Amino acid sequence: MKFAVFGAGGVGGYLGARLADAGHEVHLIARGDHLAALQSSGLRVESIAGDTAVDPPATDDPAAVGPCDCVLFCVKSYDTREAASALGPLLDDDTAVVSLQNGVDNEAWIAEEVGADHVVGGVAYIFSTIAEPGVVEHTGGPARFVYGELDGERTPRIEALDDALSSCTGVEAVLADDVRVELWRKFCLICAQAGMTATTRLPLGEIRESEASWTMYRRLMEEVSAVARAEGVDLPEAVVDEWCEFVRDLDPEMYSSLHYDLTHGKRLELDALHGSVVRHAERVGVAAPMNEAVHAILRPWAERT
């Protein structure tokens, strides 16, 4: 298959390297110092699942790539609309654009630019970042990628994507029965983890040790799950308990990408996280005071960058 990775950072770079190793045609779309390093020295992945180095073509111009079977769309959520507007040269009639981003609104935003027929939902469970230009570091997480057509249909293109990802070393590939459930399932977790580590400026371990903070962590997830069900998403009732059990075993020094961006003066994905919860909650008439509080606390910081 021919893949374009739009946003070859921690998630996109990792998947692009694994797909290239599996023999697929991969084109990386990046910018800045990272792009320069990709063009001069290729992409190196340092991973707990095994290191690799590949040298696929890299560019900042989608027109230089041309139509693809699949676009892995991995930009930050605040760049979704602008990046989606540049997808045209990558699209053929049946090209799949797979969003592997934080939040539950990206698929709709992409569809506004390229049409809903192109859009595929996806969820990434991986801790990976650009360690330095041209180098992606995978430090944890199962490297589990869940994806599916938004209507649940088993189309030839989604089965081809499943075959491609399943052939990759270091990738746990899962074709979802209902990818909307998977999007909201992860949204529960990231709103709690991002919200609490960013507002307290403290790691997960100290949040777990504070009864009040751990209660708020759980309530953030409960609110998101209530909004999901009001939206008509068949989210299991046990999802909050399952995530709480999972989080109890995580590294106590863990933070979140939202905390990293906040403490390094970078632009925040707040609008796609707690801002999104507040908007959805208002629309369906569900109370979400914990998410409102996180959004209100972090809003001035988001407006700084």
TrEMBL record:
<comment type="function">
    <text>Catalyzes the NAD(P)H-dependent reduction of ketopantoate into pantoic acid.</text>
</comment>
<keyword id="KW-0560">Oxidoreductase</keyword>
<dbReference type="InterPro" id="IPR013752">
    <property type="entry name" value="KPA_reductase"/>
</dbReference>
<dbReference type="GO" id="GO:0015940">
    <property type="term" value="P:pantothenate biosynthetic process"/>
</dbReference>
<dbReference type="GO" id="GO:0005737">
    <property type="term" value="C:cytoplasm"/>
</dbReference>
<dbReference type="Pfam" id="PF08546">
    <property type="entry name" value="ApbA_C"/>
</dbReference>
<dbReference type="InterPro" id="IPR008927">
    <property type="entry name" value="6-PGluconate_DH-like_C_sf"/>
</dbReference>
<comment type="similarity">
    <text>Belongs to the ketopantoate reductase family.</text>
</comment>
<dbReference type="Pfam" id="PF02558">
    <property type="entry name" value="ApbA"/>
</dbReference>
<comment type="function">
    <text>Catalyzes the NADPH-dependent reduction of ketopantoate into pantoic acid.</text>
</comment>
<protein>
    <recommendedName>
        <fullName>2-dehydropantoate 2-reductase</fullName>
        <ecNumber>1.1.1.169</ecNumber>
    </recommendedName>
</protein>
<keyword id="KW-0521">NADP</keyword>
<feature type="domain" description="Ketopantoate reductase N-terminal">
    <location>
        <begin position="4"/>
        <end position="151"/>
    </location>
</feature>
<feature type="domain" description="Ketopantoate reductase C-terminal">
    <location>
        <begin position="178"/>
        <end position="299"/>
    </location>
</feature>
<dbReference type="InterPro" id="IPR036291">
    <property type="entry name" value="NAD(P)-bd_dom_sf"/>
</dbReference>
<dbReference type="InterPro" id="IPR003710">
    <property type="entry name" value="ApbA"/>
</dbReference>
<dbReference type="GO" id="GO:0015937">
    <property type="term" value="P:coenzyme A biosynthetic process"/>
</dbReference>
<dbReference type="InterPro" id="IPR013332">
    <property type="entry name" value="KPR_N"/>
</dbReference>
<keyword id="KW-0173">Coenzyme A biosynthesis</keyword>
<dbReference type="InterPro" id="IPR013328">
    <property type="entry name" value="6PGD_dom2"/>
</dbReference>
<dbReference type="GO" id="GO:0008677">
    <property type="term" value="F:2-dehydropantoate 2-reductase activity"/>
</dbReference>
<dbReference type="InterPro" id="IPR051402">
    <property type="entry name" value="KPR-Related"/>
</dbReference>
<comment type="pathway">
    <text>Cofactor biosynthesis; coenzyme A biosynthesis.</text>
</comment>
